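re: the backbone from monday

yeah here it is again, tokenized this time
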């Protein structure tokens, strides 16, 4: 993924303050990456046992979609309007399916985060479901997050999966924002047996991080790449590291069905609790075929 995103950015809005904040972040990202921005509003069609229920009025839904989309587009100032093509699209079907479908072609899908802490991890929230099912990167924007370019791009690095998609996104964003990238690996406390066997050594972790920094540094020589290790679990380490002005980039695995998601996984928890924008890219394990 380069600094310019020809596939564009898609942002979902639903009329809530959280979704308009996500729109502002997506608009700034589109300007940085010379990308078109598509604003999408999707209203699910309520169905009865056989036919649509009487309360379903297509004309009311159409007028509501126009109102929400117009309010989003009106947030674009004259300067940005001249540099970022913005289109508004009312989509049929539920917001989750519409945003997942758009992720096939878009360089990035953006959604807002809403709800109290106790409910953010519930199965079925639009942001978490889109992040788990999308075909490409998804950015989830909490209301506390800075709407402009981040001060840092923090990457949660593990060594079990292919980091290519994750680091491509992180370095492209860092280059466009002229900010540093922090490659952070959390080292869980080793058992006595593991220590005696020589595993989980700090020098091995540092060598692996330096290898990643060198590989992506050759593609993005102007990006300041910093390495960090923290003792403990990845969730606690990353939550302690990031601030609302950062962008946190994580890897995850795509799930075809919501029931296949692992509630409590590292991306799932951080999507609900991180104070900054969280971007999730989908990674693959070696020799594993994604269904």
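seq for it, each position gets an aa:
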């Amino acid at each position: 993924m380069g600094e310019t995103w020809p596939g564009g950015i898609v942002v979902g809005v639903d009329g809530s303050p959280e979704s308009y904040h996500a729109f502002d972040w997506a608009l700034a990202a589109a300007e940085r990456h010379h990308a078109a921005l598509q604003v999408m509003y999707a209203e699910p069609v309520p169905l009865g046992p056989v036919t649509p229920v009487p309360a379903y009025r297509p004309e009311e839904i159409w007028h509501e979609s126009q109102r929400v989309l117009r309010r989003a587009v009106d947030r674009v100032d004259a300067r940005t309007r001249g540099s970022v093509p913005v289109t508004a699209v009312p989509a049929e079907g539920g917001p989750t399916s519409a945003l997942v479908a758009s992720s096939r072609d878009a360089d990035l899908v953006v959604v807002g985060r809403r709800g109290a802490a106790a409910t953010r991890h519930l199965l079925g929230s639009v942001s978490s479901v889109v992040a788990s099912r999308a075909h490409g990167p998804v950015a989830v924007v909490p209301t506390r997050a800075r709407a402009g370019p981040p001060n840092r791009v923090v990457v949660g690095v593990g060594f079990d999966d292919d980091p290519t998609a994750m680091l491509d996104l992180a370095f492209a964003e860092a280059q466009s924002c002229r900010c540093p990238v922090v490659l952070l690996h959390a080292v869980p406390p080793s058992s006595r047996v593991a220590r005696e066997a020589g595993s989980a050594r700090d020098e091995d972790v540092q060598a692996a991080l330096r290898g990643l920094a060198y590989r992506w540094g050759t593609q993005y020589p102007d990006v300041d790449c910093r390495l960090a290790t923290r003792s403990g679990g990845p969730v606690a380490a990353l939550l302690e590291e990031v601030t609302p002005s950062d962008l946190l980039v994580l890897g995850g695995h795509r799930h075809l069905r919501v029931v296949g998601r692992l509630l409590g996984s590292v991306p799932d928890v951080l999507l609900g609790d991180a104070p900054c924008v969280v971007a999730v890219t989908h990674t693959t394990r070696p020799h594993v075929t994604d269904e």
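The beta strands are 9-12, 37-43, 86-92, 108-112, 138-141, 152-156, 181-187, 225-231, 246-252, 277-282. The longest strand covers residues 37-43.
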